[in-house]
Design brief:
Number of helices: 3
Order of helices and strands: EHHHEEEEEEEEEE
Number of strands: 11
Strand content: 25-35%
Shape: flat
Radius of gyration: 21 Å
Length: 213
C-alpha cells in the first residue's frame, strides 16, 4: 500500500526515475550486448547530445580499462564526471530500474523533474573562416559560427560549447543577423545568427551551446 500525496502542482505517483546504467556498463559489455538504445522521443538535441556523449565516453573508457591503458581509479573518476554531465539535463533522478533485479525500482514523488542549472541556447550549424564574404562580419578569431538559437543570449556572455570530445568554456564576442546587422542580444528561438566566440580551436558543426542560468 502506497500513500498518494498531492501538492499544488499535482501528484507524481507514476513518475518513475529514469534508467541510467553508466556505472554498470561493464556488466552489459561482458554479457555480449553490443548495442544500447538511448531514449530520444520528444527530447531536445541538447538532451540527446549530452546522453550519447556520456555513454560513448564511458564505453571507450571501459575498453581502455580492459586493455590496461587506464587504472580502475581513472575509470571510476570518468564515470563520476559523466554522471555530473547527466545532471545538467532535465531529469527525474536516476535509477537502475529493473536492470539488476526487482528491488531497486525507484519513484520520484516530490517533483515532475529536476531543473538543470544550465540552459541550452543553440546548435552550431555551419562554420566559416573570417575571410568569407559575410556582410560586415569581422571576427576577432579565425572562425564565425552559424547558430540556430534555442534560448536568448547576448554579447559578452560566458557560454560552454559541448563537442563529442571536449567542452570549451568561452564567451560570445559578436552576434550578427543574416543581413549583417550587429546585435547586442538575440531573443528569438529558431532564428539563425552568425556568432564569433573567444576560441583558439575550431569546434565541429553540430556542437551544442549552453550557459549557466
Amino acid at each position: 500500500m502506497v500513500e498518494v500525496q498531492e501538492d499544488k502542482n499535482g501528484t507524481y505517483f507514476l513518475n518513475s526515475k529514469e534508467i541510467c546504467s553508466l556505472d554498470i556498463l561493464d556488466k552489459f559489455i561482458k554479457s555480449g550486448i553490443d548495442a544500447l538504445k538511448i531514449e530520444g522521443r520528444a527530447k531536445t538535441p541538447y538532451y540527446l547530445a549530452t546522453v550519447t556523449r556520456a555513454y560513448r565516453k564511458a564505453i571507450d573508457k571501459y575498453y581502455e580499462l580492459s586493455s590496461k591503458q587506464v587504472s580502475k581509479k581513472e575509470y571510476d573518476n570518468t564515470i563520476n564526471e559523466l554522471y555530473k554531465e547527466l545532471n545538467l539535463i532535465q531529469n527525474r533522478g536516476y535509477s537502475h530500474g529493473f536492470l539488476l533485479g526487482k528491488d531497486k525500482y525507484e519513484q520520484e514523488y516530490n517533483a515532475a523533474a529536476f531543473k538543470p542549472p544550465v540552459l541550452f541556447i543553440g546548435t552550431i550549424l555551419e562554420i566559416k573562416n573570417k575571410k568569407s564574404k559575410i556582410k560586415n562580419m569581422v571576427s576577432l578569431r579565425d572562425d564565425i559560427y552559424l547558430v540556430e538559437v534555442k534560448n536568448k543570449f547576448k554579447v559578452g556572455e560566458k557560454v560552454e560549447i559541448v563537442t563529442p570530445d571536449k567542452i570549451y568554456k568561452t564567451k560570445v564576442l559578436k552576434i550578427k543577423n543574416k543581413n549583417g546587422k550587429e546585435l547586442d542580444e538575440i531573443l528569438t528561438p529558431q532564428e539563425r545568427v552568425w556568432v564569433s566566440f573567444d576560441l583558439k580551436e575550431k569546434t565541429p558543426e553540430g556542437s551544442i551551446i549552453r550557459k549557466k542560468k
